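Researcher: Hi, I'm a grad student and pretty new to this. My advisor asked me to get structures for two proteins we've been looking at. I'm not sure of the right format, so I'll just paste the first sequence and hope you can take it from there.
Model: That works fine. Here's the first sequence with its structure tokens right after it:
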Amino acid sequence: MISESQQIREHELFLQSPHANSLDFRILSQVALFQIMSKIQDHFEGKMTHYQDTTRAQLNDDDFAHMRSFNLEIDHWRIRWHARQS
């Protein structure tokens, strides 16, 4: 539901406002991180629905490739937003 919101998808546009301040940057950095975390949850939550007992769920090779990709997204997030913080 959150990813469907235009305001969330295009949160970077808010930072182009002349009224944007350091608090806006901090809040929107968390929005960006939340987007990544939501993708991770969506990916792995879908795998869990196939199991009655989620402790029996196992990762496969494709899952590890997704984990590396998500890890890179978080690294890029950290680099992008660290440079923007005052």
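Researcher: Oh nice, that was easy. Here's the second one.
Model: And its structure:
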Amino acid sequence: MAVAAVDVHRWTREEYERMAAEGYFAPDSRVELIEGVVYDMSPQNSAHTSGLHRGLRLLNAVFADAYIRVQSPLALGEASEPEPDLAVVPGRLEDYEGAHPTTARLVVEVADSSLAHDRLRKIPVYARHGIPEAWLLDLKARRLEVHRDPLDGVYRTRRVLRAGAAVSPLARPEARIAVADLLPAVAKPVP
């Protein structure tokens, strides 16, 4: 039996924001727009939350003069509004009271159950929109993937760093962040 060819409706950011404003999504739903498709975001477990807040603490120390957004939208083109776990954006909070930022100096995704989505959908969107650096903190493998040098919509450089390594953000090359400091402690079984 042949399957009929069907197209997926691709949403624009304008349509997506209008749907949200009109209550199309439940108030407690967590969704994001990636290349015209609305995806449900995974619930956060304690390891994800810990990795997120460890990253926030470290980036706040390194980027004391920057605005770091937490799980907040970036307006990337007409069809994407991802919500990276962390985004170091130019300016101050007050600069974005009327619109979401359209770029970032660095984005960080903290991944456990969302690893495939983050790696295969979100990281490429960041490259296509020229974000100079994207980090993917892989909680299960306990490593940091550092993506840099976007060209023609692809990051040309990908480094994988383990817990004993350190990374210097492109925007702050004098700073060093230990990968181990980003990773939550390994949970011990309760006796």
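Researcher: Is there anything I should tell my advisor about the second?
Model: You could mention this: The mean pLDDT is 92.
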